[in-house]
Design brief:
About 4% of the residues have low confidence. Helix content is 33%, strand content 27%. A hairpin with a 6-residue loop joins strand 9 and strand 10. The protein has a domain of 137 residues. The two termini are 44 Å apart. The chain is an alpha+beta fold and 471 residues long.
């Protein structure tokens, strides 16, 4: 391995491979270190349409489309007595905008594409720690996962930590990861063959079905299997596990028996894998950037999987990070200003989704159930949110914008249909397109900066005239 690199990226998942590909395409020297050897298993199989423009920018969309993944026409929610659906065909494009993916294959496509764009990708190497010169990250110490005695050191100009939930920087060095008081849940899942197709909602949809103590997902995959998972509260899971002699399969089966929609899908189906379990505790780093470093994807923040936002946040942060770092390295923007842009835009995106997930849980008609009460944002959590920035178009006009409770209530009322009469929070979010606050719009500039892709990926001052077009 080389002893120094311009940009080091830790992690080869969607965040790391997207950032690596975009930066390599801009002509920078990029070294990506990935702990595992691909292909490797990963959960997080349902992709949102918001990933498509980023993959098109990266030049990998055609490869994803040609692979044969299950097209995802939208989502079906059976939420208490309510049944809602979201159809991606309403986005105005007849071609598939999203997919249900087997992550080992999907992540391999993205990582191979980063290689093709010029990134040096080294698999089977784990980062042990990061060295700092004062408060600036300057080097990483690594080791071979097959031979931990073999290792070395690599210096860098900048590092992007996309190491997933392990979070090399946030957990080992910065100690700035904050777990939310809510969404302290556990997921338990497995795979089934010969399941029946979902007779409701869009074609290829993910089904999300509530039960008294949580909810199930059902995701059809292109290899003929159905991914079926239970999300429940940590304490509820531990209580059930204790009562059932530690048998995770029994916990899953007991909850499944209370979910007739998913149970019907599995009538006559065969379970083809053992149970998998993962903590789904939501968290956020207090800052996503600092001298010489950026945090991206799950290394920066993680949100409850209810709305399938994981790959979206990973690739979105990778695009923001690549644009910010590109302008820094070209001398167009000071690092401190670029980091302020990245930190602000990324935090706002996360906060919008955090609030949406919380409101979605609160919309459950059965609030006496402990699980759903446990998902309500506390007053302290609401005080941490910048609601004005995250939902500016909704809360404009509040006399005292420091009143977090008042601002949150207005956002909650809007998302639960006080104006539209539609109780589906997703539909009400989509109706107010302005709140997306695109980072490409000069009107949404942060510190006078906004994101551009032409003629090169980077940041531009909202006060500067646009560069001349081709003659």
């Amino acid at each position: 391995m080389r002893e120094s690199t311009q940009i080091l990226i830790i992690g080869g998942g969607p965040a790391g491979s997207t950032a690596a590909g975009l930066l390599a395409r801009e002509g920078f020297q990029v070294t990506l270190l990935e702990r595992d050897r691909f292909p490797r298993y990963h959960i997080g199989e349902s992709i949102l349409p918001s990933c498509r423009p980023i993959f098109e920018m990266l030049g990998v969309w055609d490869k994803v489309e040609a692979h044969g993944f299950q097209p995802k026409g939208g989502a079906f929610f059976q939420w208490g007595p309510e049944e809602w659906e979201v159809r991606f065909s309403n986005l105005g494009d007849d071609t598939p905008n999203a997919w249900q993916v087997i992550r080992s294959e999907f992540d391999q496509i993205l990582l191979d594409h980063a290689r093709e764009l010029g990134a040096e990708v080294i698999e089977g190497v784990s980062v042990r720690d990061i060295e700092f010169d004062g408060d600036r990250a300057v080097a990483a110490r690594w080791y071979d996962t097959k031979d931990p005695e073999r290792g070395g050191r690599i210096e860098f100009g900048h590092v992007i930590d996309a190491s997933g939930r392990g979070g090399v920087l946030a957990t080992r060095h910065l100690k700035n990861r904050r777990f939310h008081d809510v969404f302290r849940n556990v997921a338990a899942w497995t795979y089934w063959k010969n399941a029946k197709p979902l007779g409701k909602g869009p074609s290829g949809a993910i089904a999300v079905c509530s039960v008294e103590d949580g909810w199930f997902w059902a995701i059809p995959l292109h290899d003929g299997t159905l991914s079926v998972g239970l999300v429940t509260g940590r304490d509820l899971f531990n209580d059930s596990r204790g009562r059932l002699n530690g048998d995770i399969q029994a916990v899953y089966d007991e909850a499944l028996a209370k979910c007739p929609t998913v149970l019907e899908l599995l009538d006559g189906a065969e379970q083809v894998s053992g149970m998998k379990v993962e903590q789904d505790y939501s968290y956020v780093a207090e800052s996503f950037a600092g001298p010489g470093y950026l945090l991206s994807g799950d290394a920066a923040c993680f949100l409850d999987p209810l709305l399938s936002t994981g790959v979206h946040l990973a690739t979105y942060s990778a695009m923001l990070g690549a644009a910010s770092l590109s302008s820094v390295l070209r001398g167009e923007v000071a690092e401190q200003d670029a980091w302020r842009f990245y930190n602000t835009i990324y935090h706002h995106a996360y906060q919008r989704l955090l609030i949406l997930v919380s409101v979605f849980y609160e919309s459950y008609r059965g609030k006496e159930h402990h699980f759903y009460n446990a998902q309500r944002l506390t007053s302290d959590e609401r005080d941490h949110l910048n609601l004005q920035a995250a939902f500016d178009r909704i809360i404009t006009g509040i006399a005292d914008l420091n009143d977090a409770e008042q601002a949150y209530q207005l956002v909650q009322d809007h998302l639960q249909g006080a104006e539209s009469g539609d109780p589906n929070p997703l539909n009400n979010l989509n109706r107010v397109h302005e709140i997306k606050q695109s980072p490409f719009d000069p009107a949404n500039a942060v510190g006078g900066l906004y994101l551009v892709t032409e003629p090169r990926l980077g940041l531009r001052s909202s006060e500067a005239p646009p560069p001349p077009g081709p003659s």
